[in-house]
Amino acid sequence: MNDNSVASGNKLTPRVIPRDAHPMSRQQVSPNALRVLYRLKEAGFQAFLVGGCVRDILIGQTPKDFDVATDALPEEVRQLFRNCRLIGRRFRLAHVIYGQEIIEVATFRASGAPPQEEEPAPEEENEADDRDYAPDEVDLEDDEPSAHRVLDAGGRILRDNIYGSVDDDVLRRDFACNALYYNIADFSIWDYVDGMADIAARQLRLIGDPVTRYREDPVRMLRAARFEAKIGFQLDEASVAPIAELRSLLANVPPARLFDEINKLFLTGHGRTSLPVLRRHGLLGVILPAVEDFLVRHPGSAVEKLLINGLSNTDQRVLADRPVTPVFLYALLLYGPIAAYIETLPRERWSDPQSILDGCDRALRQAHQRVTIPRRIALGVREMFALQPRLEHPRGRRALRLLELPRFRAAYDLLLLRAQVGMASADVARWWTELQAANPEQREAMANRLAPGRGGARDDSPEAEGLGDIGGETGADPAGRPRRRRRGGRNRRRGGSGGA
């Protein structure tokens, strides 16, 4: 803490950095966020940009969203904006909606308020379905005044609207680099906890005692890993040291919240770098122990290469503003545990559809003990894997029907990844790629060439056995270890074990 940021009781006074002493400009801020800031200011309220958006601008990145902090109460924010709705049970937030962009406006929190990162995502943005997870967010479009604290019959906090000043609010934030306030009144940056120095040093540092902060909210360890992966900052030694002792606390975090955190780690453009950061801190083994166990037992395997390639492809889709889905993510993450189960079966059952589905169900159940996996995602994973033998052994015109299935594209993408690391035939993957690019007449001709005895993309070699090679390279077992090849062929059902 620098000399200009002095504690006074439980409050801090900021070092105010004037406009000409920092590089942040309004031109880097969303016009909609500026509208919100200016309207709050004109109505006589304090208004600051705060958090990751300020940090990202200062390090030369484009923020994905803009958060506003103010002394206006949520009901007062709603009165100022017709396009506003209030959400949140534990702590009410205002969402000011401009088409596809949402500007989140939070009232300054006092020391007794729950940390903002403990608030689950809004219901419409949460991936969990209502059977597996009822999010702790509701739309509050009524005129009910905010009670300071409301408990349910079991004592769980439903609302805890304890408001404070900007000096109080800083103490509720997690990392110093996320606790910079951009003041729209004079375009200055208020720095209470040496956040600017941490940005210059590219350092992540928890505000307050790390042991206390991790015990307050163990998910902060995952957030630390996420920021390391996302912005390339290094967690300082004091913040790293307690993780080895305290990471087991993540086992007590609600599984639905871990589902949200995993999505943030792997589906926001930095999944490829999130994986080694989680493993380095020993966090993957707490949230997805079967995945970590497989990677430890099979270092450098084809499965690990597939996972890394798949996460890289997902990052590229995010950067290109293309959609991504947790279904594909969990298919990648659980590939190893599924392969490990299939390996325990007799070899002749490796490409049996029921064996594949049993492996999926087993891996999903294991993961579900720590992380909520909504039913629709679990079903999607099963469908992707069940389609693999049918894609590897296309059968004449029946192959064309697969193009119409909802999960075809995801299953095809998985087949491509498998082919890249030698788990599936590159010729078969190429055939499906060409089929999708062909016109209807060309598709018919390609399908007709797959008639029995006419060759085509179908591969009946001993190495091509559908999901018998789910986890390994061609000629390898499901875990990616080399296996002895058999001489001669094998009696198989006509059209392949997974044919349509």
Structure description:
By secondary structure, the protein is an alpha+beta fold. It folds into two domains: about 5-200, Beta Polymerase, domain 2 (2-Layer Sandwich), CATH 3.30.460; about 290-470, Orthogonal Bundle (cca-adding enzyme, domain 2). It is about 40% helix and about 10% strand. An eight-stranded mixed beta sheet has the order 3-12-11-4-5-8-7-6. Strands 1-2 form a two-stranded antiparallel sheet. A two-stranded antiparallel ribbon has the order 9-10. A hairpin with a 4-residue loop joins strand 11 (about 180-185) and strand 12 (about 190). Helix 7 (about 220-230) crosses helix 11 and helix 16 crosses helix 17 (about 355-370). The chain is elongated. The protein starts with 6 loop residues before the first strand and ends in a 52-residue tail after the last helix. About 45% of the residues are buried.
Write the layout of secondary structure elements.
Blueprint: E1 7-8, E2 11-12, E3 15-17, H1 31-42, E4 47-50, H2 52-58, E5 67-70, H3 74-80, E6 84-87, E7 93-98, E8 101-107, E9 149-151, E10 157-160, H4 166-169, E11 180-183, E12 188-191, H5 195-201, E13 203-204, H6 210-216, H7 219-231, E14 234-235, H8 237-240, H9 243-246, H10 255-266, H11 271-280, H12 284-287, H13 289-297, H14 302-319, H15 326-333, H16 335-343, H17 353-368, H18 375-386, H19 388-392, H20 398-402, H21 408-420, H22 426-437, H23 440-448
Parallel strand pairs: 5-8, 13-14
Antiparallel strand pairs: 1-2, 3-12, 4-5, 4-11, 6-7, 7-8, 9-10, 11-12
Helix pairs in contact: 7-10, 7-11, 13-16, 15-18, 16-17, 17-18, 21-22
